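Whether sequence alone determines local backbone shape is best considered at the level of individual chains. When preparing material for the folding task, we compiled for one chain both its residues and its backbone structure tokens. No coordinates are needed to read the tokens, only the vocabulary itself. For completeness, the protein is quoted in full, as a sequence line and a line of structure tokens:
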Amino acid sequence: MSQVLSDPQISVRNWQAIAGFIDHTLLKSEATAEQIIRLCEEAAFYSFAAVCVNPWWIGLAVSVLHGTPVKIATTIGFPLGANHTTVKRFEAAEAVRLGAQEVDMVLNIGALKSGDRQGVLNDIAAVAEVAHGSGAIVKVILETPLLTLEEKILSCQLSLSSKADFVKTATGFFGSATAEDVSLMRGVVGDQAGVKASGGIRTAANANAMVAAGANRIGASASVAIVRELGAPEFTPKVKS
């Protein structure tokens, strides 16, 4: 990890460094093909870690980003997490078949709050098994704005037990990520998993606070504004023929 990002005493000043932590995200239901193409072109231009798109757009993202190091991430059980495990498993299998290299799944929040630890564990493990079988990684969205302190800790522990690769704060639908939650999550998972901060991260200061708290991925739709704030050049779309 870059010193600029790993040392909480150092402010983020290098836009290339922060760009490498960002999942450039567009999950609006009304997103168009043209917007997804631009998202992918921006990701390649700024060398973001990944794009995160809804499953419908995986194929388009793969075609645009072919030959670049930018990863394709998608969502599973999004945004409520209440799909049946068999559905999440199938959705993950289709996602990786189409070319997704990372899957961000929503934890079954209702099951967690009902005390069904085994159900939550099985839900995550089913997606992890499918994803890992194709070399993809799994990020578990905890939806921290809806959880108590004890539930946040437990959901991190269950994610680790289910062999998830990352724990992630939120979808952004029910509240924003906080540095306090990121720090808590990092404290629980240690170096056994990554931590992704997502939800309401719109400025370089927001991003820096999350990284300082322990995040090694940042999900943002304001990615371009963040790196432009740090001195990145302006992106110019390709001229249509």
Summary: The radius of gyration is 17 Å. The domain at 10-229 is CATH 3.20.20.70 (TIM Barrel).
